[in-house]
Amino acid sequence: MITAVLNEIHFQEIIEKAAKDAGVDCLFAAEEETLLALFQEGTPSVLLIDLGNSNLDGAALIQKLKQNPATRSIPVVAFGNQIRADLMQDAKEMGADLVLPKSAFRGQLPELIRHYDQCHDR
Fold first, then answer.
1. What is the CATH number of domain 2-121?
2. Per-residue confidence band for 40, with pLDDT thresholds at 50, 70 and 90
């Protein structure tokens, strides 16, 4: 299972299709409270965070997750608009495992899902 935190329907559809094609369940949250509630469903193999989500501060969320012993081991892949290099840098500094511009994220998404899903199964 993967979990994505975003509020952009276009990217939700892209992630949903890639997860379905890989045979992996995917849950979505638009804000932090919903994300925390989703953790009751189980631990995701990867957490995808859109840094452009206007409902939350992506870097601050990453920092909280990486400081919490219950969630620190969940891999975090953050993606954002390359024009906002400051947001991408903040995500790296707060502990994101991988930070990609949206275009690269979209191109690598199927492989990212397979990679993290296989790592989680071990």
1. 3.40.50.2300
2. confident
